[in-house]
Design brief:
This protein is an alpha/beta fold. It has one domain (about 1-135): CBS-domain (Roll), CATH 3.10.580. The chain is about 35% helix and about 20% strand. It has helices spanning about 25-35, 55, 70-80, 80-85, 100-110, 125-135; strands at about 20, 40-45, 45-50, 90-95, 110-115, 120-125. The strands form two sheets. It has a three-stranded mixed beta sheet. A three-stranded mixed beta sheet has the order 4-5-6. The protein is elongated, with a radius of gyration of 16 Å.
Length: about 140
């Protein structure tokens, strides 16, 4: 059965990460440049947190001001990734079954999960990865 295979078969490899000391403007640039919505946060190559695009959107302060982008840029340069990242995200191992990963995502209303081995990020699995896999023969 397809869902008993490990997530390593369908996960996205070559994961874009962000350093724990980066500011939010750096993270936003990574989100936009790579067209991604989740960034594992690393310190010395070990995963220490997770930052989502939605986390950053919640910090958008300029709604009631004329020059919203200027306000957001200033705030995003003042804040570091470490200040808003999820510090103990749920993560899975590469040998985790696709079924188990899907259940974790459904039960927690997640759209992606980092895949780790020995504290290092080796992949990400997203709802898009799951759907692509399910529709293939």
């Amino acid at each position: 059965m397809k869902v008993t295979k490990p997530v390593s078969k369908i996960m996205t490899r070559n994961v874009v990460t962000v350093d724990i000391n980066a500011d939010l403007s750096d993270a936003c640039l990574l989100f936009l440049t790579h067209k991604i919505r989740h960034l594992p946060v690393v310190k010395d190559d070990s995963m220490v947190g997770l930052l989502s695009y939605n986390d950053v959107l919640r910090l958008s302060f300029g709604e009631s001001y004329d020059d919203k982008s200027e306000i957001d840029d200033t705030v995003f340069k003042l804040l570091q990734v470490e200040q808003i990242m999820v510090t103990d995200p749920i993560k899975i191992h590469a040998n985790c079954s696709i079924r188990k990963a899907a259940k974790i995502m459904i039960n927690n209303k997640f759209h992606a999960l980092p895949v780790i081995e020995k504290h290092k990020v080796v992949g990400m699995i997203s709802t898009t990865d799951l759907l692509k896999y399910l529709i293939t023969d």
